[in-house]
Amino acid sequence: MVKKFILIGAVVSLIFILGCKTGGDRSNINLDYKAIHTGSEGITLDFLPNLPPEKVMEGNSYNMGLRLANRGAYDVKEGEGFFTFRGDKSDIDIKNPYQAISLKGKSLLNPKGEETINADYAMDVLKIKENDTKKKESFIFIDLCYKYKTEAIANICIDTDVYSLSYREKVCKIKDISLSSQGAPIAVTGIKQNMVPVGNAKEKLSPEFEVTIANVGKGTPFYKPAFTEAICKGTLAKNDFKDSWNSVEVMAEIEGSGLRFECNGDSQGTRPVRLDKQKTFICRTLGGIDAKIPPYTSILKINIDYAYISTISKKIEIEKFDIR
Known about the structure:
The chain is mainly β. It has 2 domains: 43-147 and 311-319, Immunoglobulin-like, CATH 2.60.40.10; 149-307. The chain is 11% helix and 47% strand. The protein contains 3 helices and 18 strands. The strands form 2 sheets. Strands 2, 4, 6, 8, 9, 10, 11, 12, 13, 14, 15, 16, 17 and 18 form a 14-stranded mixed sheet that branches. The protein is elongated and about 90 Å long. 28% of the residues are buried. Mean pLDDT is 85; it is low at 1-29.
């Protein structure tokens, strides 16, 4: 009898576990999402201590060491990330200045994201040309460029009874939504919602969202479709792509509704969305939702596509070799 109860208990436990894995429990999905989509960083790049030293001697060679890490929630795949060394060519000569990168973002198995350390980047320090100068300052710059994506998710209310004419109690109410970060340098910070009647019959309602996004990182976004390797190499003039700097592409959808939204940067429907540090814009759809359906809750998904460009630097002091 005891064995029978144990067997029945094991079967019930197995059914419960399988139910949890295959069911539609949104709380588990939200927990997974929140665990990964936090923070305001994407790819980070830092010099390793003393690589190169702060004081270097002319005519010598030195190694440079870097720590690269993907602290965000999006995987940077092969061909999507690059960095370039640059400096005063009269002071330093950097071997293989252009490097390609790929790094996986945060996951439940790796909540800090992928990280690499490399100390094999070579630099030659050239001789000081000025005869009366015993030492001089110079700078090493690294331009980091990569494609990235922000994925924001928010619980929303689809209020089909906007005038509260029904006697039934509503399961939800429309309210303003504040968000913080989503594991990326561009973040959705606020959402305001409205339900707009479609046509004169008012048989359908169209959700409309006023979305605020912000550049919360230390770099500059760049319009992803216009991004090329040449931009990171510095072989193209910045003015040639002036309309692509500080620009992102935004798409939105309500889960399970089949409704997709156009999110435009201005009243003329111009894409992409341009921002300095912050931008507020409207996301609209041509479709609608049957006004006879009772109000219900759903999930709004907002995807922001862009490239991201940032620069770090290190000051070095070059000393003249004195044989006396």
